[in-house]
UniProtKB/TrEMBL annotation:
Family to which this protein belongs: Belongs to the bacterial ribosomal protein bL33 family.
GO CC list: cytosolic large ribosomal subunit
Protein's recorded name: Large ribosomal subunit protein bL33
BP term (GO), one: translation
Region (Disordered): 1-27
Organism from which the protein derives: Buchnera aphidicola
Keywords: Ribonucleoprotein, Ribosomal protein
Chain intervals with Low complexity compositional bias: 13-24
Lineage: Bacteria, Pseudomonadati, Pseudomonadota, Gammaproteobacteria, Enterobacterales
Gene of this entry: rpmG
Amino acid sequence: MAKKNREKIKMISSSGTGHYYTTTKNKRNTPDKLVLKKYDPTIRKHVLYNEGKIK
């Protein structure tokens, strides 16, 4: 069987509110950590979200 190419990741808010998004990424094409600007509904602003592991 083929090995799974996509890995589940958690995008954690850098504002410290504890809010996160879950998504997948192709670990072969993007081996480095993702940093995206997304909306944080807790503080109602767009902030940076850093990649973290799903436990």
